[in-house]
Amino acid sequence: MKKCFTLVYFLLTAGASFAQNNGAVLIPRAVYVGDPAALILSLPGTPVDMGDIIITPPRRAEADIDIHRIALERRITGSRLVIEFTAFKPGIIELPDLEINGEIFSGISVTVNSIIQTGASAPELSRPASSLAMPGTALLLYSSMIIIILLLLLSIWFVLKGRAFMRKFIARWKLWRLFVSIKNTEKHLYRSLLRGENKRDILDVLSEEFRTFLSFFTGFNCRAMTAREFEKLPDMDSDFLGNFFQHCDRLRFSGEEINSDEIMRLLDNLRFFLGQIEKTKNEKEIPNTEMAA
Prior knowledge:
This protein is of the alpha+beta class. Helices cover 49% and strands 17% of the residues. The two termini are 94 Å apart.
């Protein structure tokens, strides 16, 4: 029943439907040549809500007005016709008759203004629009300022105390690498002994690498020292070092069969000695750090 009523309604209005500019709204209210605009015409409501009809008419060459889009919206509360256009000459321009779904809309006109006026006062251009801030600009600006301030403070700190700190840091880093190297050597020799490799070669590497470690750690040339000279090495456990190298040299140069247990004992003593001097070194650095703070 509703479909029949709607069909009768369109048949009654299709033949002579026209739309004067009564109740029309122009957006913007003042349209100038070359500006895109929209004309909204209020129409009577329909018995039922219907889908929108959107038309994009083809562009006509040498026309005074270019219609971009036409939308016919049918609603119970009130329909409307929206015409989007761009005019190319000033004055009152009458739009061509529009036929939409059997309805004809005629008598539609718009008033187009010219930016060139002959009045006493010349038209003034509006002020330029303010620049739009991109999203995140404030965050980027403040972050850059904070980074610059931190770099400046870091530069001042480096000039005053940074060089001494870097010297201490490099010395600690070298010492850490030194302990890592000798510990890795001890583990490598332990695995070589378990694999049954030449015991005399293991002792040679152990003696040479331990002497190299002591040379860097103490600042003395420990590579050419004898076992008795190690007993006079200052600031070290001289008794342990003397006994260690005496035992090691005896196994290396005695010509007797080398027992794996004795090499194991030497490696265990080396591991214990490294742990003790590393612990002592850390305990000495902690009070110095607290006093400096």
